[in-house]
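Contributing new records

If you add data, match the layout below exactly. Sequence lines come first and carry their own label; structure lines follow with theirs. Keep one chain per record. Anything else will be rejected by the validation script.
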Amino acid sequence: MKMFEMLQKFISPKVSGLIKVLSIGVLLSLSACDEEDEGLKIQPHDENKMMSIMHAMMDKMHTMQMNEDPDIVFARMMIMHHQGAINMSDEVLTSGDNAAIKAIATKIKTDQQKEIQDLQSFINSYQPDQSPDSKFNMELMDSMEKSDRQSDLQVITGDTDHDFAQLMIVHHQSAIENARAVQEHGTSTFIKNMAHMMVDAQMMEIKELQTWLLANSNMSGGH
């Protein structure tokens, strides 16, 4: 306030009053921002259970050997990817409290458990008809790297339902990219059909999760 008192000596009373009003407005705005910031709870990624599950899945996928037929590579990778979604669903079913999110998680778990069985049966019976495809493998690797970065950019709150919705969107986006890649590079009709179903189902689930986040985002303090 010393600066304000000094300025009063050189300005008219009317201008002085205006400056005082503006100063009070700025202080009130800053106070409101502080209150909003206090309402935003962010949890470090290393302390977050859902993020830990996501990272464990990605670490396992990065160790996979990709020197096989593209359809086989896709099937092996999606088994790991699906298991990550199942583990995330188990976490929200155990620790979450939102009925709508639990319903989505239950559907994801049921569908992806069935798809893991189908993918494993495919691996056991399929006779590969292609050599390893470096372009296909690169597309999968690029998708994994993109998913890694995207998940690390998410605002994680420690609210299980919110974090599940945020990260499952990223998870599904990666699966869709992988499915579209195998539709282009694979030859198995079974895998192409499964990839098509994955894209349709997971695009629908992304919309459901986005709708839920818009209505229940922790950013706005709602649940």
